[in-house]
Amino acid sequence: MISDLSLVIFCATIVCLIVFFIWSRKVTKKRMLLHRLFLAIAWSYIAWVIPLIIMRFVPQENRFWMYILDCAVQPGGALCAPLYFCTAVTFVSGAERLKNWMKALFILPIVSILVVWTNPLHHLYYENFSVIRSEIEFGPYVIVTGIGNYFFLVVPILYMIRFGIKNKNPLYWRQCTMFIISGMVPLIVSIYATFSGKDISIAATPLSFLVALLLNGIAIFQLHMLDIRPIATEHILNAISDSYLVLSDTGLIIKYNRSFEELFGRVYGIQENKKLSECTQHEDKLQKNPFYNLVAAMESSRQGETHVSYEQSIMLERNGELTKMYFVVDVSPLKINGQVSGFVALFKDVTQLRESMKKLQLSQERMMEQERFVFLGQMIGGLAHNLKTPIMSISGCVSAAEALVEECEDSIGDEDVTEEDFREIYGEMRGWFGKIRESSAYMSDIITAIKGQATTIVTDEKSTFTIDEMLKRSVLLMRHELLNSGCNLQIDYDRSKEISLEGDINNLVQVVGNLLSNAIYAQKEKGNGEIVISVFLDEQKLNILVKDRGTGINERVLPKLFKMMVTSKGTHGTGLGLYFSNIVIRGKFNGQMWGENRKDGGSIFGISIPREIVHIRKELVNKEEK
Question: Which string of DSSP letters, residue by residue, matches 157-171?
Fold first, then answer.
């Protein structure tokens, strides 16, 4: 029968469970399936032990009431094992609802309860009922219930062992160990009761299940170790970071994943239950390890109670060689009841990203240089003509001046040549010299413009230049193309306002030159078209427009302009021009480009530059205000 000690334990357990139920209703508003299963086990346990407590006060000779109480014991005892099975499956799978096949597990307990309750009709469970263990004679159905109970205990234990081995994670192993122990205790007691042949108290089995109830209750409601949330949290941390580190508010290392251990733990001696500061205090101050910055970031996060992010370079050994790796470290405070109680540090490896960005930048620079060469190539054809004309002019002027010099020399001592004649010869010579200076100045301008465009586009040579100077260079470089195409260029710009910009003039000359080249090509079929460069200011920006009377922009191409490398020139174009022109305007002048079709035919391409980098001559501004 039930001993006095067992009676005290059962009564204390019932009181504790009732207090626990009241507490859990207050602190747990929304219960997960795992919580509900534990509460079901707890209620089943109470239903199991209450009849046992009553048995303690009923005389053993009263076989009728003893049998009634034994029948009352069956529902609680029969349901605890399958509920334990369902708890194991829910923990591993993270299920939020009881699966249909798990519901089928309760068929056997229900049948067993009915068999016990109706035993006097068939004697399948008891052939002879007695409160004395040695006098009990079991029927054939007890084998079914015995196999069922072993199944409900052994399978979850094996299931948890398999889960722990498969995941190979300390967190999982701690969780699985608690669950395995909670199932092993009642399993061992059942095996001993079945095969030892000794009389064992009827209270032995419920006492063994008390261990399972205690371990699972603490784990689920206090430590959350059998809760799926820590597992889900770890999966999330692994998904959003390459490595993570969890620390207490005092810097004590609580948890890290395997990746962190492989990358940093072994190298810097980082271990659980060790303070992070201990891993850094013995380092050479001139060669600080990366966790000095982490300690400082934690302190900043604590003081500001906010998220802190920084980039950290770390030298790590890879394939026997030291390799410099880059990580973005995110430090976030963990608050409990409004107080900072710890920190989580996420390490994201951005080494490959940095290398990819570097390669992308180099590739972009090469493509921009290729576009510059394309632009220069368009001017090379006209360069020879532009330089040949002034050279031939200079050559002619020199020949004419030489002839005049010879004429002067031949006239020396000739009485028929007067002083007035010499003055006339000198005047003609000055005229030829003036034409030589004009041609030389034109050649100098051409060389200056070409030299400026030949510099690399990625250089950031910021200076102040005027719109007038930019237009002059653009027109000068495109002069040959304009003459050959027969296009007439007009400039709509109020030169009374001296507008200047901050930046690299060569970048803007290249963009405007590209727009002029596109406008010439658009009017190639018509010939003798009109191109207008319009420059004006509004309240927010400086606008530079290039208008043509060509075929317009294809409606299919229009949405992709400046976003993709598209072209309507077929094999005659690459699509790089507008794409990289937009990059230059955005990157160098913080502006933007746009394009649209004109209602009366042709297209307009615009450049808009914020007024922050636009300057107007001060005296002109004051005159406008007056």
Answer: HHHHHHHHHHH--HH
